């Protein structure tokens, strides 16, 4: 009986030692994966994939490797991840953001193109990639907006408080975005839950030139015969 108990005890010890080392190895792999995605270390990500690491792993913020790569502009890592069928392109983080939304607000055009080719959703309920792109003030933000519109982004998409991309562009975005969105058919008469229009957004940001441009488009729409 004592011999049997000793055998069980040894098996228990071996199992727990194995589990401890396995857990430590997994923890190290988890950290290595997100660091590699941040630094665009493709070879490290490939090595982890060959070891069976879950490429859909999410960190404490809910970000996946694609989120991190899209944020940091890690084109090589993102390109590799998108070749893996098991990788889910529409994983959302805790803020409800997709990798495409992150790429849109960061202006990483090549990554956005690859995500779209892989099936990333250009249109989704609530905040959309177009909202994010429209709120970016950098000079190249118009290129991202054009890309999304080319792939049928809904130009008057409503956020949870019914704000549209035009409203965000009027308040936060590059000044080229307001005329671009208006030319593409954005509706300047829409109001959000607070009753604010794109004109109000522009005025709140003291962008009087954009407020006048939007107001002019409104007057044109209301002109007799239009």
From TrEMBL:
What are the entry keywords? ANK repeat, Membrane, Repeat, Transmembrane, Transmembrane helix
Write out the transmembrane intervals: 12-30
Which InterPro entries does the annotation name?
Ankyrin_rpt, Ankyrin_rpt-contain_sf
Q: Which domain of life is it from?
A: Bacteria
Task: Write one Pfam family the protein is assigned to.
Answer: Ank_4
Task: Return the PANTHER family for the record.
Answer: ANKYRIN REPEAT DOMAIN-CONTAINING PROTEIN 39-RELATED (PTHR24171)
Would you tell me the protein name for this molecule? Ankyrin repeats (3 copies)
Q: What is the lineage of its organism?
A: Bacteria, Pseudomonadati, Pseudomonadota, Betaproteobacteria, Burkholderiales
């Amino acid at each position: 009986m004592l011999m049997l108990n000793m055998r069980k005890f040894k098996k228990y010890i071996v199992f727990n030692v194995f589990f401890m080392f396995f857990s430590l190895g997994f923890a190290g792999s988890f950290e290595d994966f997100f660091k590699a995605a941040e630094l665009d270390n493709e070879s490290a990500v490939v090595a982890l994939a060959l070891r069976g690491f879950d490429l859909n792993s999410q960190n404490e913020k809910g970000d996946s490797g694609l989120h991190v790569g899209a944020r940091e502009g890690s084109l090589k890592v993102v390109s590799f991840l998108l070749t893996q069928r098991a990788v889910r392109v529409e994983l959302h983080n805790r803020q409800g953001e997709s990798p495409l939304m992150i790429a849109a607000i960061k202006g990483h055009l090549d990554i956005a193109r690859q995500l779209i080719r892989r099936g990333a959703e250009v249109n989704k309920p609530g905040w959309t990639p177009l909202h994010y792109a429209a709120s970016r003030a950098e000079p190249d933000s118009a290129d991202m907006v054009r890309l999304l519109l080319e792939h049928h982004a809904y130009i008057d998409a409503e956020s949870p408080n019914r704000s549209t991309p035009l409203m965000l562009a009027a308040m936060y975005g590059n000044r080229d975005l307001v005329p671009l969105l208006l030319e593409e058919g954005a509706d300047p008469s829409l109001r959000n839950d607070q009753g604010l229009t794109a004109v109000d957004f522009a005025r709140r940001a003291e962008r009087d030139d954009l407020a006048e441009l939007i107001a002019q488009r409104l007057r044109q729409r209301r002109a007799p015969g239009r």
